[in-house]
Amino acid sequence: MTEPTASAPARALASAIVDTLVHRIGKDAQAARPHDWLAATIFTLRNEIIERWMESTKRAHAAGAKRVYYLSLEFLIGRLLRDALSNLRHNDEVAEALATLGVDLAEIEEIEPDAALGNGGLGRLAACFMESLASLDLPAYGYGIRYVNGMFRQRLDDGWQVELPENWLAHGNPWEFERRESAYFVGFGGEVTATADGRSHWSPAEAVEAVAYDTPMVGWRGKRVNTLRLWNARAFDPIKLDQFNAGDFEGALAGQTRAETLTRVLYPNDSTAAGQELRLRQEYFFSSASIQDIVRRHIQYFGDIRTLPDKAAIQLNDTHPAVSVAELMRLLTDFHELSFDAAWDVTRATFGYTNHTLLPEALESWPLPLFERLLPRHMQIVYAINAKLLREAAKVEGIDGRAIAAISLIDEGGERRVRMANLAFAGSHSVNGVAALHTELMKKTVFADLHHLYPDRINNKTNGITPRRWLQQCNPGLTNLLSEAIGEDFRDDAAKLTALAPFADDAAFRERFAAVKRANKVALADYLKDAMGLRLNPDAIFDVQIKRIHEYKRQLLGLVETVALYDQIRSHPERDWTPRVKLFAGKAASSYHNAKLIIKLAGDIAKRINADPAVGDLLKVAFVPNYNVSLAERIIPAADLSEQISTAGMEASGTGNMKFALNGALTIGTLDGANIEIKDHVGDANIFIFGLTVDEVAEKRGSGYRGTDAIDRSAELAQAVNAIASGVFSPDDPARYRGLMDGIRDHDWFMLAADFDAYAAAQRAVDARWGMSDAWGRSAVLNVANMGWFSSDRTIGEYARQIWGVM
Ligand code: GPQ
């Protein structure tokens, strides 16, 4: 079967894959289906990964190295085969081997399910960080939950979002290793008693077992392989036989069902606190298992728990794992016999906390009675920490009663609640924001008083993205062009991309650069034609807004401007319009009414515009269903224009913005989050910035501004809002969008109307620049050249040196 033309290594690899297929999957090459080939390929590749994994672990152990622990309720890692192949530089070899077996590597890569254990930016950041940690050869573990159902699959029924469960484990998961020996007891409820020697003893009323599942995280060139350890909940006693024998079958299995519920599903909320008891249980479950595992490893390797901060840096990815602070305090005081003060010193020196949003609805706090019922010992510890914290605060000049109330771990206004952000802040030696503006706003708003108390604690770590997945893997055409132009150095150090800058003035290079972009657009157009029957003109501007649907991200601004443009094209067909394709994609939280309505509106607008012969190829609109990491990998390399148009002050950083610019799209965006730093790097001339600043937004909100003020002044805006409100795009239900449009007229909290004219003007500036293809090409090349700084290697380097002390 093996073709004689294949190289010797490819032939050896092919026979290894077939061997795996037969002995591990139990099928021969004739019977194998695509999923079998996928599994056989992964299992074969895994052998090398395992060896590097063990070598990495041993090396860290032998060096007595300090380890980084990244605790996150979300890891949006996506597919892993291409990532591993590409990082190990085995792509060509494996493709060749499979070809000799009549199997197309690209085809089997396509059927690998996305591991979507996250909602959006926060979860994807965690995945980029895991890859960079391994690439920088830093010993690190990610800790999270092995959700059986990750992010839901989005289907559009008549344009309405419907959520379907995504069963990513349906065909098994060849990447994971169950570690039955790494299992921990996690308790809930019950009561706390004092022991004879004056310590506390917690007797939980309920307990589950946390079992580890490890996935290898392969760094660039396979230098290091780290571990992503995800916890699965299991009942200690999976079946109560006495009950079963007595005929109560459901009751006999109830414990197992209850345990499994814990790790069953990811809460599909992005930047909003879920607030349900199950969520607090998930948070404690994975925090407790992770902290126990970290403490166990430390004792095993180093013996003395008091040296923990020298050997472990634990980073809290937002407040979701913040209860870890109380959990470590519990282990140190109740089991390792440290005094409260000694335990507190160890705890603070070990933890760092990253804040990802200022949105009040995202700040987690738990009703005190719930917290106390579920975690009675932790409640005591929180009180004790609070007493210490407030004693310290009272000594500081300028801290009055109001400030004390703001610093307290307990919110006493109304129903008493435990504030997780304050707990994370107090329990960490470092608190960081994710972009420069965001970090400054943290100091001025949510954490103003804690910042006054601990002025050295808040620091900035601007987010980054891994250039392996978000350039090399998703855009091989551009990557090859870059290596022809500037050599291979940028593959190991994205900062070396600056060598590309002189090529911005090289017309022949710009032409090749444009050809790569066009080929990516053709590939995307082909895909969307198959997937949703769309016909797109690859010479139009591909204008893209893909991210979670959220009012502050202002997909609605993009849609209203689309309607205005549509009206302009119809009213002035004689003008020289620039053809545009407007692509939208993203999921809405299932309970977020307006976000779901915005999705429906996008579909309604698309239906009307795409069918109108008066605009023809000049304007096409599409809402692409089921946005996920894999879809992003297809769309981003094909984008010309990246929409980053959040209301200033509301997007902590954004990371999609970085992916687009790195792939040569120009950004149209507000002075928000990392857009500001992108502007500083790519240069004002190579980005389209518009809209109110943070201060102007605050000023308007404070001065009784209403959307109607702006609508009355803008004929274009008024026309678009009125058309949507009156049912032009929803003839089947003319009132459908009245409420949504009234929201803009009445409050316009997100400043859509206030920013509209500036946004529309910026879009016309985009058209003008597109018309000067040399100028556009020059800007696009300069974006790629100057985006290396946004590599997550740079970000992780900063964390490593400035927070973790591991570099
Ligand atoms: N982010 Cl709090 C999320 O994706 N989910 C969340 O629950 C919170 C924040 C995002 C944030 O909105 C983006 O601006 C950031 O770029 C991203 O986190 C990573 O820091």
TrEMBL record:
Known catalytic reactions: [(1->4)-alpha-D-glucosyl](n) + phosphate = [(1->4)-alpha-D-glucosyl](n-1) + alpha-D-glucose 1-phosphate
Cell compartments where the protein resides: Cytoplasm
Pfam families: Phosphorylase (PF00343)
PROSITE patterns per UniProt: PHOSPHORYLASE
UniProt protein name: Alpha-1,4 glucan phosphorylase
Cofactor(s) annotated in UniProt: pyridoxal 5'-phosphate
This enzyme's EC code(s): 2.4.1.1
InterPro entries according to UniProt: Glycg_phsphrylas (IPR011833), Glyco_trans_35 (IPR000811), Pyridoxal_P_attach_site (IPR035090)
Keyword Glycosyltransferase found: yes
Gene Ontology cellular-component annotations: cytoplasm
Annotated keywords: Allosteric enzyme, Carbohydrate metabolism, Cytoplasm, Glycosyltransferase, Pyridoxal phosphate, Transferase
Residue list for modification N6-(pyridoxal phosphate)lysine: 659
Source organism, top-level taxon: Bacteria
GO biological process entries: glycogen catabolic process
Function: Allosteric enzyme that catalyzes the rate-limiting step in glycogen catabolism, the phosphorolytic cleavage of glycogen to produce glucose-1-phosphate, and plays a central role in maintaining cellular and organismal glucose homeostasis. Phosphorylase is an important allosteric enzyme in carbohydrate metabolism. Enzymes from different sources differ in their regulatory mechanisms and in their natural substrates. However, all known phosphorylases share catalytic and structural properties.
Molecular-function annotations in GO: glycogen phosphorylase activity; pyridoxal phosphate binding
NCBIfam families: P_ylase (TIGR02093)
Entry similarity comment: Belongs to the glycogen phosphorylase family.
